[in-house]
Write a structure and sequence with these properties.
The complex is a heterodimer. Helix content of chain A is 0%, strand content 51%. Chain A is built from no helices and twelve strands. In chain A, strand 8 and strand 9 form a beta hairpin. By secondary structure, chain B is an all-beta fold. Helix content of chain B is 0%, strand content 51%. In chain B, the strands form two sheets. In chain B, strands 2, 4, 5, 6, 9, 10 and 11 form a seven-stranded mixed sheet that branches. A four-stranded antiparallel sheet of chain B has the order 1-3-8-7, with no helix packed on it. The termini of chain B are far apart. Classes of the chains: A mainly beta, B mainly beta. At the A-B interface, strand 5 and strand 6 of A face strand 5, strand 9 and strand 10 of B.
Chain lengths: 114, 116
Amino acid sequence: AQSVTQLGSHVSVSEGALVLLRCNYSSSVPPYLFWYVQYPNQGLQLLLKYTSAATLVKGINGFEAEFKKSETSFHLTKPSAHMSDAAEYFCAVKDGGSNYKLTFGKGTLLTVNP
Amino acid sequence: GAVVSQHPSRVICKSGTSVKIECRSLDFQATTMFWYRQFPKQSLMLMATSNEGSKATYEQGVEKDKFLINHASLTLSTLTVTSAHPEDSSFYICSAGPSSYNSPLHFGNGTRLTVT
């Protein structure tokens, strides 16, 4: 069974600083990986996805993530944080089997300080 | 992009009553939809997989008689919380995706249920 571990339940950065949110996965088959963002009292919005094409994936709002098989990681980065990036971020994995279910990490709350 | 609409966004009901939440895929057909529950400051917990034209598949520990799911068409799934109790108060989110396996799921904006 697949699983996702997000290191750090809370990350705080200054506006303009680098954002790094960590995600490690466990999957018995090549995974499909996703990052979602959730603003308060809203659903989840897809930031980006990895589906076995390019290992460096670019998403919306200037975010990108790199799939590293050797490290079983899919960390999310953004070169320069903006106040509007403050939200909860979830990493999720969908395995290569026949089910469509997503397994989510516990989430990382990003705060951006002025 | 794909859009999933969830309604209502917020509902308050009295203990013992039932509440229905709708989830619609607006620009694609969804043979499968998913219902999640999210507790404050926690991740999403998958409750059940809703299959169009057949019975839902519930995750372990989820009471199927309490959380009734109906997926009568390719664009609509409903979750009914029956005989609601205060402990059912939570944030419920549905999701769906086009029928391509490597396509991501798209999420509704969630329903905040408060049972008094």
